[in-house]
């Protein structure tokens, strides 16, 4: 372990909680948004709430179906992942049609959280995904045109 990991008790807390998920991490390709969400949560002192494709999370979950540019999909979130009144930042790698980010917002709001902002690494503005965010601010690093 590096000196940084030894000095930061949050890293130990994250590692001990992740180990309760069977077979984590799973081999193969993982959700790209997971590359950005946990370090951002750690940096701002917030908790990280995973939103996953169906049957990836253990325990009881909320489900939210949504449309994609090429079909439909579903996201799930643990029922007790957030408490009413908590503020949330939705982080993902890409916003295209806005379906995934909008579904994430809906899950969090159904649980009583207040989504205050969304952040994505890449936006494809021509697909008008920002329009599905109900006026919530969207922070983007790169626009792909």
UniProtKB/TrEMBL annotation:
Phosphoribosyltransferase domain mapped to chain residues: 28-128
InterPro entries named in the record: Adenine_PRTase, PRTase-like, PRTase_dom
Pathway entry: Purine metabolism; AMP biosynthesis via salvage pathway; AMP from adenine: step 1/1
Substrates-to-products reaction catalysed: AMP + diphosphate = 5-phospho-alpha-D-ribose 1-diphosphate + adenine
Location(s), subcellular: Cytoplasm
GO cellular component entries: cytosol
Pfam families the UniProt entry points to: Pribosyltran (PF00156)
EC number of the protein: 2.4.2.7
GO MF entries: adenine phosphoribosyltransferase activity
Broad class of where this protein is predominantly found: cytoplasm
GO annotation, biological process: purine ribonucleoside salvage
Top-level class of the enzyme under EC nomenclature: transferase
Keywords assigned: Cytoplasm, Glycosyltransferase, Purine salvage, Transferase
Subunit field text: Homodimer.
Role summary: Catalyzes a salvage reaction resulting in the formation of AMP, that is energically less costly than de novo synthesis.
Entries under PANTHER family matching the protein: ADENINE PHOSPHORIBOSYLTRANSFERASE, PHOSPHORIBOSYLTRANSFERASE DOMAIN-CONTAINING PROTEIN
NCBIfam families on file: PRK02304.1-5
Similarity section: Belongs to the purine/pyrimidine phosphoribosyltransferase family.
Name of the protein in its database record: adenine phosphoribosyltransferase
Organism field: Solanum commersonii
């Amino acid at each position: 372990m590096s000196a940084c990991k030894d000095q930061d008790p949050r890293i130990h807390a994250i590692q001990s909680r992740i180990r309760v998920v069977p077979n984590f991490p799973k081999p193969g390709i993982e959700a790209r948004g997971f590359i950005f969400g946990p370090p951002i949560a750690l940096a701002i002192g917030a908790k990280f709430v995973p939103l996953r494709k169906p049957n990836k999370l253990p325990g009881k979950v909320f489900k939210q179906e949504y449309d994609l540019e090429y079909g439909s999909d579903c996201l799930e979130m643990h029922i007790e992942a957030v408490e009413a009144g908590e503020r949330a930042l939705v982080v993902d790698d890409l916003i295209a049609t806005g379906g995934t980010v909008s579904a994430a917002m809906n899950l969090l709001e159904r649980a009583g959280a207040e989504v205050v902002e969304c952040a994505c690494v890449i936006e494809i503005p021509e697909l008008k995904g920002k329009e599905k965010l109900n006026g919530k601010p969207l922070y983007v690093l790169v626009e792909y045109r």
